[in-house]
Each structure stands twice: as structure tokens, then as C-alpha cells.
Amino acid sequence: MDNEPIIILSSREIDKMRQAGQLAAQLLAHLEPMVKPGVSTLDINDAAEEWTRKHGAKSAPLGYHGFPKSICTSVNEVVCHGIPNAKQVLKEGDIINIDVTPMVDGYHGDTSKTFFVGEPSPLARKLVEVTEECMMRGIAEVKPGARIGDIGAAIQEYAEGQGFSVVRDFVGHGVGRIFHTAPQVPHYGTRGKGRKLRPGMVFTIEPMINEGTWEVEVLADKWTAVTKDRKLSAQFEHTIVVTPDGVEILTLSPELVAA
């Protein structure tokens, strides 16, 4: 993927991505009140699917390379691609990443957020707060002429400085009409390296930050990735576009866009 041509989106296509991104943000906001003890990850998935259909959109993950559900729900040591199921019931102190990608008129709005279930431990709270800050520091590096490596370097520097590690096996990606395309966007790296950013490039920044080792394992279901040491992992994701003078986050909720 790293040598693939990068698709530059037109202003009309960026408008479509903005619509999809705002719907994705609204979907996460709709699901947030469900994140409480006693609710199963399947309940959250089914609510997401119903809401998405009601808003005239499709759930891009459903059936993607055989993925069986409409969203990903990654709890505690699950790094990403957790499959919602009825037996997985949230309990006090859990953390859960909910990753949604509604598709509107063929365009993908890809975003995720890690939520607290009730009151988290101090360590879980720190991990989640650091992970969100990592994402924002990565986004702050985006401008024309910057390099992909600048994004990863900013994230890695902050995460490791806080005593955590950065997952290597999963990265951000170009997105538009295609769910996953060039460029790959690692969340670790070296400043000044990697492909150069140009206006009209649209991609995700979605750091996965671990409490312990950065190493992961994929379970027998071929999807669920967990930390090798089974310690906690958190993730945040936004879809962004490189603008002529910097960056715009496409998956901010409309209230935040207006603020």
C-alpha cells in the first residue's frame, strides 16, 4: 500500500466526506449513553445498525472481508476489531473503544473513541487521556509539505514519554470511497520521513496505545487483536483532510464544528 498512488479528493468529494464524518460523530454520540454496566456489546452494535439505517446510511464494517457485525467494540485488553457479542457484558471499570464507519452516498466516515464504563481506575483514566492527546498531537502535525513520519513521531514521543507503548501492527489509512487505501499512517516513526502531505489527502489518525508491551496477538476468530501481555489498550480515531493551510477534522460532531 505504501507505494500506491494517493487519491486526492475534490472539494465536492471532501463535502461528501464531511457529511459522512459528521454522521459518524453523531452515531458515536448516540451510542455513548449505552456505555454502562450490564449492557452487552451486541446491544450497542444493534443500536448502531438501527440508527445508521434510519439515517439512510450503511455500516461499512458489516461484511467487510467477512467481518460479522456493524461496528467494532474493543474492551480492555482488546486493541482493535473486537466483535460485538451477547455474552460480552460491560462491567464497572471497563474501558471500551467503539469504532464506527457509516457509509453515506458511497463515502466512509471513520471514527472511534474509548469510553469509560462507570468509574475507571487511575491507570485506565491516564491511558485513555494520553491516547486522546496522542491523536490530537498527531493531527496537529498535519499541513501541506509535512511528512507522514512527523505524525507518528509526535504520537510516539508523547506516548512513550508517559510510560506507554504504541501499537505497530495497525496503522491509520487513506479513506474516501474506498474504506482502506493509501497512504498508510503509522503512529510511530521519524520526523522528515515518509510521504509528503498535499491538500486534498484524506486519511485517518487512530493511535492504539498500550499500558504494557506494544505487541499484539490476533485471536482464533481472525479479527480480535489483543495485547500480548493482556494489559489495557486504548484508541481514538478521527478522519482528517489536509487543507491548503493545515488540517480539518471531518469526524467532529456538528456542535463542535460550530464551536
Summarize the structure.
With 259 residues, the chain is an alpha+beta fold. It contains five helices and 17 strands.
Could you explain how this protein is built, in words?
The chain has 5 helices and 17 strands. The strands form 6 sheets. The protein has a 3-stranded antiparallel beta sheet. The mean pLDDT is about 95. It has one domain: Alpha-Beta Complex (Creatine Amidinohydrolase). The chain is α+β, with helices and mostly antiparallel strands and about 260 residues long. A hairpin with a 2-residue loop joins strand 5 and strand 6. Helix content is about 30%, strand content about 25%. The termini are far apart.
Strand order of the largest sheet: 1-5-6
What overall form do the CA principal axes indicate?
A: globular
Distance between the termini: 37 Å
Task: Characterize the largest beta sheet: strand count, sense, and whether it forms a barrel.
Answer: 3 strands, antiparallel
- Return the CATH class: Alpha Beta
| Overall number of structural domains | 1
Order of helices and strands: HHEEEEEEEHHEEEEEEEEEEH
CATH topology: Creatine Amidinohydrolase
**Number of extended strands:** 17
Based on CA atoms alone, the radius of gyration comes out at 17 Å
Outline the low-pLDDT stretches: none
Global structural class: alpha+beta
The CATH superfamily is Creatinase/methionine aminopeptidase superfamily
CATH architectural label:
Alpha-Beta Complex
Mean pLDDT, to the nearest integer, reads 96
Task: Provide a count of the helices.
Answer: 5
Helical fraction equals 25-40%
Strand coverage percent: 15-25%
